[in-house]
């Protein structure tokens, strides 16, 4: 098989999961090679573009790797304090109910300092979409242990692996939120293969459609990689995620009512 044949196989129709969108700005991304954030940005941008809601969408990013998301998606953005994106989204959605409001948060942000914020926003059933990127580590600040860090996982603050007897257990925050009566749609997806990206895009669209129909809060977790924090190559990061994170954080929809 020639190199040309190999390339043609890779770009075959079934593997072309991305469409064209004008929402992504022509800025060089700051994310590390292999980071899942770039893929998620592309999917969100495509859905907003396809639904024709660019001028009606407001994104809210707090502190973390997602803090510079406004550099890449050509929509209105607001900046929230660490963990406080759901509170800001609540105010925005209530003041402007005709808008499509979403938060874009990492696990260190949402499941740690922002745990109370997301719990109460979900319990109230605010009409927003929450994108929760879970890579089981604090990526931006040096690779420290996060609430979602797996048992035995080595991080900057758990050099011998996470010891649950002293640090507690990895939080399945999505399962917790699914039990709250205020949540409408709760799902856990990934973005490491073309098939996974298609499922994620379907979930993203459903979340925004729920907002349009004022059905309440949609919570979309994306199990992601952090090559720099995990000290692995992009390929090895995907393998590690599948072997270690997927068993503890199984993919699929937990709630859809």
TrEMBL record:
One of its GO terms (biological process) is cellular respiration. Residues 70-222 form the Thiamine pyrophosphate enzyme TPP-binding domain. SUPFAM superfamilies: Thiamin diphosphate-binding fold (THDP-binding). The keyword Oxidoreductase applies. GO terms for molecular function: oxidoreductase activity, acting on the aldehyde or oxo group of donors, iron-sulfur protein as acceptor; thiamine pyrophosphate binding. It holds the Pfam family TPP_enzyme_C. Keywords: Oxidoreductase. This is 2-oxoglutarate oxidoreductase. It comes from Labilibaculum antarcticum. The lineage of its organism: Bacteria, Pseudomonadati, Bacteroidota, Bacteroidia, Marinilabiliales.
